[in-house]
Design goal:
The chain contains 7 helices and no strands. With 196 residues, it is mainly alpha-helical. The longest helix is centred in the last third of the chain and has 33 residues.
């Protein structure tokens, strides 16, 4: 269970952190938001996580980790794909709604995944297991950012776009959309590990 949960975590965290890397870039470079405005647009994800944590903790024992993970990953996949509906002049409230719902999905996935990861670990092995879990989480985040940054750079080039250039905004938006598709595929693959 520890190995399986860590495998899911690597793929899911890669998609989550990679997409979190893309969102501020999109908001600032292509949509003209400042850093503060961009941060306020993405902050509702944290509110979504906080508001769903209590429910996820209570539901874990009634529903079980597998179902919670699946629901969380479906929610995170759908909210990642929702960025395909974002144009160059989006409503900040639309971005906030996506991020808030994304936080819900992440909370369901996070609570069930972390609890399942350590469910079979003996107390005397908890320190080593926690170190492995945290190290893999950091590697997964780095992998996700590197992968999606590479995809974005490749797709910008393929669409003859330059990040932040007002003359190539349409091509850049297409490149971001394609990168969000890759992030959604990562979540979908993580879910396939859970379902299997």
């Amino acid at each position: 269970l520890f190995t399986a949960a860590n495998t899911v975590q690597v793929v899911a965290q890669g998609g989550l952190m990679g997409a979190m890397f893309l969102v501020p870039l999109l908001l600032q470079a292509e949509m003209g938001m400042g850093p503060l405005e961009s941060g306020l647009a993405t902050f509702p994800q944290a509110l979504g996580v906080v508001s769903m944590m209590q429910f996820a903790g209570r539901a874990y024992h009634r529903i079980g980790p597998r179902r919670l993970m699946i629901v969380g990953m479906i929610g995170t996949t759908l909210t990642t794909l929702a960025f395909l509906l974002v144009g160059l002049e989006p409503s900040a409230w639309w971005i906030r709604l996506i991020m808030f719902l994304r936080g819900w999905g992440f909370a369901l996935m996070l609570v069930s995944l972390q609890t399942a990861t350590f469910a079979t670990i003996d107390l005397r092995d908890m320190g080593r297991a926690s170190a492995v879990y945290n190290a893999l989480r950091q590697v997964a985040a780095s992998f996700g950012v590197a992968l999606l940054a590479t995809v974005l750079t490749n797709r910008l080039s393929a669409n003859d776009a330059v990040l932040g250039n007002p003359l190539t905004r349409d091509g850049a938006l297409t490149a971001f959309h394609e990168a969000f598709i890759v992030a959604a595929v990562l979540f979908w693959n993580a879910m396939s590990f859970v379902v299997a």
